[in-house]
Structure formats: structure tokens, C-alpha cells
Amino acid sequence: MASDFRGIEVFGRQPRQPGEPRRRAEPPEPRRRARRSQQDAPRRRLGIIAAIAGCVTVVLTITGIGVSMVGHFGTGILLAYLATGTSVVAVLCGAAAVVTGRGRVFGALAFVLGVIASPPVLTRVLGWASGLG
Questions:
Q1: 102 and 47 Cβ atoms separated by less than 8 Å
Q2: What is the DSSP string of the chain?
Q3: pLDDT of residue 9
Q4: Are 119 and 64 in contact (CB under 8 A)?
Q5: Which residues, in sequence order, are CB contacts of 64 under 8 Å at separation 6+?
Q6: How many Å apart are CA 119 and CA 5, to the nearest integer?
Q7: Region 84-91: what's the mean pLDDT?
Q8: How far is CA 55 from the centre of its chain?
């Protein structure tokens, strides 16, 4: 006994009549690429600010090391304090950007730069590395 029932019909499709040709699915309409609108810029602003703070941390740390090697220790210490402050800003803003999704790539970059280029972290790592040799 043949039955017209073909299983569960999804979304109310009508069963095909015998002799009726199969309908082909229409190709989907091509999707337009969404342009990056002006609204995307404020969403990424926190990550970009954090990335700038991370880059400033790297520059201040390198400059402070260079100035200290020349013999201007007071200036080197001041630059180390400034680099520490900007690294805190970079890490906190970078973490906030990653968590909230406001410029995740820039926020992750800022987080890494802020941790690696921070003078207290560099002091600990170099102190540990000097004990290895």
C-alpha cells in the first residue's frame, strides 16, 4: 500500500503531486558587503585608545632605558614612572575592550604590550634571568 504521506513536512510544504516536476530552490540573493559605518568607529574607540597607550608604554620604556644608559638617571626614573602609569592604563583599557567587545584586537594588543613593556615586569624578568647565569 503506497501512501501519500512522506514523513514530517517542514514549514507547511505541500506534498508534490505525481508527475509534477521537482522545483529547484532559487539561488539566494547575493549579499551586499556591509560598509563600515561611522557607528563602528565609536565601538572600537576604547581598543584604539588602549593600543595607543600600549605603544606609548613601549616608547617610554625604551627611551627611559636609553637615557639611563647615558647617565641621566633622574630622567630615566621619571620615564620609568610614566611608562608604568601608561602600562596600567593600557592593561586596564585593553582588558575592558576585550571583555566588552569594543575593539577586541586592539585591546588584546594593548594588553600584551602593557604587560610586556611595563618597567616593573621587566625588572622582575631581568632579575630572574640574571640569576640563571
A1: yes
A2: ---S--SPPGGGPPPPPTTPPPPPPPPPPPPPPPP--TTHHHHHHHHHHHHHHHHHHHHHHHHHHHHHHHT-HHHHHHHHHHHHHHHHHHHHHHHHHHHHTSSHHHHHHHHHHHHHT-HHHHHHHHHHHHTT-
A3: 56
A4: yes
A5: 75, 76, 77, 78, 79, 80, 82, 83, 119
A6: 75
A7: 96
A8: 15
